[in-house]
Amino acid sequence: MNRRPLGRSELVIEPLVLGGNVFGWTVDETNGFAILDAYAAAGFTAIDTAEGYPNWVPGNPAGMSETIIGKWLKARGNRDRMHIFTKVNSGKKPGGLKPDAIKAGIEASLKRLQTDYVDLYFSHWPDPEASHEETLEAYDGLIRAGKVRAIGASNYSAQMMADAQQTAVVKSLQRYEVTQPRYNLYDRAEFDALRPYLLENEVGAIVYYSLASGFLTGKYRSQDDLGQSPRGGGVGQYLNAKGLSILGALDQVAAELGATPAEVALAWLVAQTRVSAPIASASSVEQVGSLARGVRLTLSAEALDLLTDSGK
Ligand SMILES: NC(=O)c1ccc[n+]([C@@H]2O[C@H](COP(=O)([O-])OP(=O)(O)OC[C@H]3O[C@@H](n4cnc5c(N)ncnc54)[C@H](OP(=O)(O)O)[C@@H]3O)[C@@H](O)[C@H]2O)c1
User: Fold this and answer.
1) Is the bond preceding 230 in cis, omega lying within 30 degrees of 0?
2) Where residue 231 falls among pLDDT bands split at 50, 70, 90?
3) Is this structure's pTM higher than 0.70?
4) Any catalytic annotation for residue 53?
5) Which of 39, 53, 121, 139 is catalytic?
6) Which of 11, 62, 93, 148 lies in disulfide reach of 142, CB 3.0 to 4.6 Å?
7) Which CATH superfamily includes the segment(s) 4-238+261-299?
């Protein structure tokens, strides 16, 4: 498969990152192990999680996702073959990217993940109270200590990325090599605004909500369908003319290729300029198989144009 570098870092991955926000939410530990096994067996290595996942679930089991992934890494003895990405400042607390918060955050994440380093450490959300300089200095220390291999920023605008990079250059610190914005056939504005910065600066992008929380699988086509998953509530926003137009194009291309809408939606993402890899989660082993087929599917120029135009 077409392995891709993440920015100018030494990290190179297959173009599918497994989303970890389901672990401890729609996926328990046993099913989680089966999903992780299937993902690794399909030849992929990169898993995305965060210190806060899944903190929106009643009881707020923040850290459960990292804990399940850590138990799996330990049980399988495969830490050196996997790429683990996690994030700090999930709770968007003021000061969440100050040096003390970062130092405490990485220690807690490493403990839950049962490892002594993470491959990629993300600022989950910007922190208006922390300067880029103090945040990047803290990360630089973690990289020098061997606890983090490279850093990234999620939910940052192009201006924030450029400002942070300028600070890194002036202060001789490591820069953010990867960004993690929302991007899928329906939600394009955030990534489209970032792309010129990413192209000019050779920064990577792993993009989230690749399936629009499941909407792009085509299993939600009316209000009645929203009850199919605990995630249904977040999917209702896509049930409108634009969403249905995208589903129409996905159905057409999927029928032509003998694929599913989810697979075609992922194939479209993999083909977009400056997308290093989509991040997508699965709640079953069967879904992992579909994600794997999707990122290995090649779409014709006509199919790509049809899909792109369907969401305009
Ligand atoms: N940086 C950030 O701020 C941020 C924010 C959100 C997410 N993320 C990351 O991005 C990852 C992906 O986001 P996400 O999981 O929320 O959304 P997603 O990848 O767009 O949607 C995945 C969901 O769609 C359903 N699905 C997947 N494959 C399917 C198939 N073949 N057929 C039918 N249904 C299928 C599953 O849910 P059901 O089976 O339950 O329907 C699955 O959990 C997260 O895990 C997280 O790592 C990052």
Assistant:
1) no
2) confident
3) yes
4) yes
5) 53
6) 148
7) NADP-dependent oxidoreductase domain (3.20.20.100)
